[in-house]
Amino acid sequence: MKRFLIILIAVVVIGYIILSANFFxxxxxxxxxxxxxxxxxxxxxxxxxxxxxxxxxVKKHDLHPVGKSxxxxxxxxxxxxxxxxxxxxxxxxxxxxxxxxMATIKQREPVLRVISNSKGxxxxxxxxxxxxxxxxxxxxxxxxxxxxxxxFAKNELYDFAMFLNNNSDWDAWVEQIVVKNGNEVxxxxxxxxxxxxxxxxxxxxxxxxxxxxxxDEGLNKLGWNRYSEINLKFDNQVVCTIK
Length: 243
What we know:
Number of helices: 6
Shape: elongated
Strand content: 25-35%
């Protein structure tokens, strides 16, 4: 008899829990959303997109959740609309216990800015993809200008930009990467009134190491304003053009 009572009580308790869960689930679905919050996770580092811009994007597609019951709110649709922004890398949209919809967003991370004579102004992000330039914000990354197509920007230039990003001395020293016809590359340094002729970016680390030796054995002795061009294209030699 005692065992029967225990089983009966357990069944009643489980039934109550299930009924309560269903009741609260149904009632929560009928609740209205009281707020839409947007959190840009990396906003202290970059500000390509703002919470206001994301909210306007959601409103434009009639997906703004405030005032709607939760059973009429499609968080996946909101996320998909946010992901249409070419400045957004990832987004999560969920309903909070406080009755709001929260969107957390991560921005794309540029590693190179390209100002192309034929393709215009754009960034290459850390995943080798093209991203647009935001008019409201600029980020400090290497700048490449000239005759640049997208394929060259996403491959050879990306690799060179990542080398600069990972080597702070070179990153601080190179002011601009200039690309000529045939993907011939010149560097404009921050110090010295001359250009460094790299030629192709093949084996660029060897060429830069050759330049360092030339600085130690040549420029520091002869002066930094003696030459207009320092050519590193040729094996085992540095060819200079006197001003």
